Amino acid sequence: MFTRTAALRRAQRVAVRGFSTSSVAYESSVRAGVLLQRDPIVTQPAGKFEEATDRYFDWLQFISADRFPRDFFFKKGSTAESKWMDQEDIRAGEWFFDATSKPVVKSVKRVIHEDDMIEKSETSKPIVINSRETEADATGNEQSLERKLDRTLYLVVKGAQGEWTLPQGKVNDEELLHEAARRNLKEMCGGKMSVWMVGNGPVGHSKSGEASTFYIKGHILAGQAKANEELASEFKWITREEVEKTVSAEYWLAVKDMLSTI
Amino acid sequence: MLGTVSRHVAALRPGVSRGFSTGPALGYQARLSQYYHNTLRDDLMILQYVPPQVRARQEVMEEARLKAIKENVGGTPPNPLRKRLKVRPPKPRVAESAAHNTPYVDKVTVHIRCREALQNKHNLLSALMTLQVVTGQRAEVIKAKNDAAPWKLRKGMPIGAKVELTGDRMYEFLDKLVEVVLPRMKEYSGLPMDSGDGMGSFTLGFDNSAIGLFPEMEMVYDMFPMVFGFAVNIKTTAGHNPAGRLLLSGLNMPFVHARKPTTESFML
Amino acid sequence: MSGSLRAISTALSTSQRGGLLRATKATKEVKRTSSRTGGGSGAPGHEVSGTRYEMMKQILYVEEPRQLPQLSTEDVERHMTIMRAQKIFNMTASATRRAERLRKFESMKNAYEELAALDQRLFDGACQKEANATFPRQMRVPTETPPTKIWDYLTK
Question: A24, A37, A184, C143: which could join A169 in a potential S-S bond, CB 3.0 to 4.6 Å?
Fold first, then answer.
């Protein structure tokens, strides 16, 4: 008896949901997507103007600063001291004001004995600086997360119809937007990756026909996407400009405001 | 002053945008500042967004709460002043969600309380020099505001030193603190979740063993006759603690979680 | 630093040069205190630290900063032009950033409105906030040069 009433009630509830207001008619039309981004790994490159002004202000600070108390900071004859002396000499050679006003500067450098120099050249290892242009940049591999290190990259996938979009899918009953977004990302390209979602609310939406897709923002922290053949044939990590070239014009208008220019 | 130590001329390092440097020049943006503007700020905006209709609902509830408190609080009727004293002022209102009012770090103050300066004022030199070396900025002397007889302190006596940092220099100091000093501290697990002054500002206190962990101090540690503990006050524009905490955690400041937060990243 | 530069630029514009960084309030204050202590009560047992304190005093309060040279009118003009260009550059950069933030905010606001119109349940779910939200520790602050291992692919 009890189970029957429970079943009856459930049926009633479904019926109410089915026929009340217009919510159900729309419910199927809401879709959830993810705006998954890889954050910049290196700092922004300085432009020509920034580099020039930076150098000027740096120098200005240098010529007007307090005298550097060498005896306080360095032990006499230490490597750190000689490094500092090298830099000081180079800086003293620079002059941005009128050449006639340049004072005569005595080199701060002490005479270094020959055996000291040999010892130094043996011990000091040159520091190799990694290039900001990576292998992925050179080969044009758009699936790599190691490309365009100073930019924000976005994950786009090629859907079943051959259209490039942000990863997205249906919202099931009793599922909230962020849960659906997470599930869809997992189904579409859930390889092995660590993701952090920013809140539960949408950062933007797009419309196609009756359906509205709401996007939740996320950051990829580690791992890599893996396209699920049934839902997505391909994926790419691309910048804002490249998204514009990849997706359809209509879709671009819907998503462009969410994307960073840096 | 310290800026001259490890600063290269840009021409020395053609491959990199700027030579490594300990002090910011005007045309340069510290990396933490870049990170805040390019990545963190958008996330803060998203996490803090409250739609207008939800906010209106919250305000109605808050008003009702305040009204209830006001009516329940006693106080004899002929003495209205007493009644007013008993009502706790409402919490500061959180600013309406907008693109421009995401919280940011306004100012960082580093100060050293130097009680030893009462015996010998030369000790203050140590504190001033320490701050200058660590922050790269000239320190100010703090003077006593009041008399304090038990400590033989009179008004106007120098009692400490402080530095107020803003802009890139502030970001570079925070960066150093978070990336170098805190990880090297033994038994430091992070700020407790209940820290903060209620307005989104946070203070961290350190004993005198922490000052030697700053990379600038390592080289000259022996030159200081006296080392002090110090306090770092981080003033944010968050307006309430959770938002300030969110901002600082974004700048990599560690927090001790009582429970595992739901925003933790997950594996797919 | 920017303070000292500002001092320099004012000094350049008013043609007052020399002693720019000295004239801070803090300097004057401690000069007084240090002269007072220096006069008499040097506590015994402080000889060892005495030389180091002398050195600090020298660094902090006695040594004169480097003097800017006498600048020609062209130099001053050039400097002011650079300052102006810098200011314009910064203003443009922040205006661009602001515009971008504004369009992101509008996009988010519109999405919330649309969602509220379509489905109240999903809207309420989207408005839920975590009480103790913090950023994950794995988020990485950009560095000047790329790391040796650029990306962690979790291949273990």
Answer: A184
Write out the two tokens for C141: 């602050």
H helices of chain B, in order, are 31-35, 41-48, 52-72, 80-86, 123-135, 167-176, 182-184, 215-220, 241-250
Same domain assignment for residues C81 and C26: no
Element (DSSP H or E) covering residue C116: helix C73-118
**For residue A41, what are the CA distances in angstroms to B40, B96, B164, C140, C141?**
14, 33, 30, 7, 7
Whether the model clears a pTM of 0.95, i.e. scores above it, the answer is no
A206-242 in b/e burial notation, b at 16+ Cβ within 10 A?
A: beeeeebbbbbbbbbbbbbbebbeebbeebbbbbbeb
Q: Please say whether the beta carbons of A198 and B44 come within 8 A.
A: no
Q: Which residues contact A25 (CB under 8 A, 6 or more apart)?
A: none
> Does residue C146 fall inside a structural domain?
no
Mean pLDDT, chain C, integer: 72
Cβ within 8 Å of A, B 37-56: 38-39, 42-43, 46-47, 49
* Interface mutation target, options A34, A39, A58, chain B, most CBs of B under 10 Å: A58
Residue C13 belongs to a domain: yes
Looking at every residue in chain A, the average pLDDT score rounds to 81
Into how many domains does chain A fold? 2
* Same domain for C63 and C1: yes
Q: Which chain B residue's Cα is nearest to C85?
A: B27
Both tokens of C41, joined, read 């009560």
Amino acid in the structure at residue A104: V
How many residues would you count in chain B?
268
Q: Where are the alpha helices (DSSP H) in A65-169?
A: 70-73, 79-93, 114-123, 135-139
**Is there a single domain that holds both residue A34 and residue A60?**
no
Nearest to A198 among B26, B43, B219 (CB): B43
Q: Which residues pair with A214 in a beta bridge?
A: A32, A205
The whole domain housing C27 covers 1-34+48-71
Q: Give the residues across from B143 on adjacent strands.
A: B158
Chain segment A81-126, per-residue pLDDT in tens: 888 888 888 877 888 888 887 877 777 765 555 555 544 555 567 7
Whether residue C60 is found in the same domain as residue C97: no
In a domain? residue A231 = yes
> Containing domain of residue A94, as a range?
48-123
Tokens (6 digits) for A131: 């290039």
Is residue A8 domain-resident? no
- Does a structural domain hold residue A2? no
Indicate whether A3 belongs to any domain.
Answer: no
A139 shares a domain with A59: no
3-state class (DSSP) for residue B3: helix
The answer to whether position C153 is within a domain reads no
What pLDDT is stored for residue B92 in this prediction?
61
* Residue A197 with chain B: CB contacts under 8 Å: 263
